[in-house]
Structures are given as structure tokens and as C-alpha cells.
Design goal:
The protein has about 250 residues and is an alpha+beta fold. About 30% of the residues lie in helices and about 15% in strands. The longest helix is centred in the last third of the chain and has 18 residues. The protein binds iron/sulfur cluster (3 copies).
């Protein structure tokens, strides 16, 4: 049975305890300045966006059939049967195809590290495998972030929509987008207002990215190892920063 996270924005109070718990879990810094950052980054795997009194979380959707996994030439990213999409840094060659492939603009790169890695939420895979809930769900004081069996969370979300039809946008985000995701969202305001695209295909993206991967030439590993050049990094960083800005439209 696959696990999932249901985030109900109508229950969220913007306390940001999920952000802090995520930072602690992943041994990342967290302070007032980082709390104020309204974007995901290599040191902030989840963010609670705020627009007046409405809130929305962003984190890796841990897609059922992830585009990031399908384009990774060295299988550094992998979907687990339990739900989390995990990352093995030791396999990663730094090509950053995953960053370009992800439809949600999630993976980030440690541009300033001498030993850079891709960073993203991996749905607390070690905790999930140990039978625990994710750190962000465990800490949430209102139940806005809830962990459980994906099927049961879907049933619960459907019941909430049925019980309070005027309260929510009539849509469970992640139920069908890109073939379904382990993270499911409910909201009272249109998801687009927080940068979630509503025109996502309902078929899994890997069916499209596989065609790209099959055309990756053999010289890619060598090319990947050469990407450390200062000129390239400088220009690539700007490119990706712009792409991140476009994809994460909820940023303030
Ligand atoms: S949201 Fe992006 S990074 Fe996360 S699993 Fe899906 S494709 Fe991969
Ligand atoms: S599931 Fe784990 S890694 Fe992902 S946002 Fe929540 S606490 Fe962070
Ligand atoms: S811990 Fe729960 S209530 Fe607090 S900001 Fe996160 S999701 Fe919202």
C-alpha cells in the first residue's frame, strides 16, 4: 500500500512548524530569515506560502510515475513502492536533467557547495519505511498536513469535498495530475494562485521523457563530469534560477 500526504489548506494556520520539522529532520538550518523565505531551495525542502489569510504548502509531490526518475541516466532518483521518491547522492553525476524534467520545479542544486548534490523532499523515506509518519505531518498542530495510506487520504479528501461543497475548490490536486502524486492538496482558493498549474496532463510524464532519455548520447557521463567549469556554472545557475522562478509561481 502506497503512503501519501494530504494537505488541507483550509486547516492551515501558517505556523510553519512543518518547515521547521522538515529542516530538523534533514539537518538543515532554520531561523527567522529562512522562515521568511517564500520559496523552496537547497536548504528549504518545503515552504508554506501565504497570501493574506490563505496558505498553501509546496514540497516535492513524490509523483506516482516521476519525470525526474525517468530522465535520470544513472538511477540516482527512484520511486519506492511505499510512496517516497528517494535520491542517492553517491550515484548522481550532476547532469541536472531532473531539474528540467520536474513539472513542479522541485529539485534544487547546491550551487555553492564544493560537493554539490540535488536536494528535494524525499517524503521522509526513512521514517516511512520505519512505520512512522513524515516529520511535517507529525508536528502539524491542526491536522492540515496528514499522513496515511494514499487511498484512504483520497477517500477522506472526497468526503470533505462532499460534506462542505462551498468551502473548497472542487478538486483534489494530485489525484490525477501527471498520473497521480503521493502528495494531495485541498484548497479554498484556486491552486493557480499559489503557482500550481491546472493544465497538467493526466497521463504520466515518463511516457514522454523516456523518448528524450533514449536519445541521450553516450558521451553524457563525460560531459557531466565537465560541468564543474566556472563559466558554465555561472550561466547555468542564472538559467535555472529563472526556470525556478517561472515554475514556482507562488513565490512572493
Ligand atoms: S515533483 Fe518533481 S522532483 Fe518530485 S517526484 Fe515529481 S517529478 Fe520528481
Ligand atoms: S515529507 Fe519529510 S522531507 Fe518532505 S517536506 Fe515533510 S518533513 Fe520535509
Ligand atoms: S504545521 Fe500544519 S498548520 Fe502549521 S503551517 Fe504547517 S501545515 Fe500549516
Amino acid at each position: 500500500m502506497s503512503k501519501g500526504i494530504l494537505y488541507d489548506a483550509t486547516l492551515c494556520i501558517d505556523c510553519k512548524q512543518c518547515e521547521q520539522a522538515c529542516a530538523e529532520k534533514n539537518k538543515l538550518p532554520y531561523n527567522d530569515a529562512i522562515a521568511a523565505e517564500q520559496r523552496q531551495s537547497d536548504h528549504k525542502f518545503t515552504v508554506v506560502l501565504a497570501k493574506e489569510d490563505k496558505f498553501m504548502r509546496r514540497l516535492c509531490m513524490n509523483c506516482n510515475e516521476p519525470a525526474c526518475v525517468s530522465v535520470c541516466p544513472v538511477a540516482a532518483l527512484r520511486k519506492t513502492s511505499a510512496g517516497p521518491v528517494i535520491y542517492e547522492a553517491s550515484r548522481c553525476m550532476g547532469c541536472r536533467y531532473c531539474m528540467l524534467a520536474c513539472p513542479f520545479g522541485v529539485p534544487r542544486y547546491e550551487w555553492n557547495s564544493v560537493n554539490p548534490k540535488v536536494q528535494k523532499c524525499t517524503m521522509c523515506s526513512d521514517r516511512v519505511l520505519a512505520g512512522k509518519q513524515t516529520a511535517c505531518a507529525e508536528i502539524c498542530p491542526t491536522g492540515a498536513t496528514k499522513f496515511g495510506e494514499r487511498n484512504q487520504l483520497i477517500a477522506e479528501a472526497q468526503q470533505r469535498l462532499k460534506d462542505s461543497p462551498g468551502k473548497y475548490v472542487d478538486h483534489i490536486y494530485g489525484l490525477e495530475e501527471v498520473g497521480g502524486t503521493s502528495v494531495l492538496l485541498l484548497s479554498s482558493v484556486p491552486f493557480e494562485e499559489f503557482g500550481y498549474r491546472m493544465d497538467m496532463p493526466h497521463d504520466p510524464l515518463p511516457s514522454r521523457t523516456m523518448a528524450v532519455q533514449s536519445r541521450i548520447p553516450d558521451f553524457v557521463p563525460l560531459w557531466g563530469s565537465l560541468l564543474g567549469g566556472v563559466w558554465w556554472i555561472t550561466h547555468r545557475r542564472d538559467e535555472v534560477a529563472q526556470a525556478e522562478d517561472k515554475k514556482e509561481g507562488g513565490r512572493k
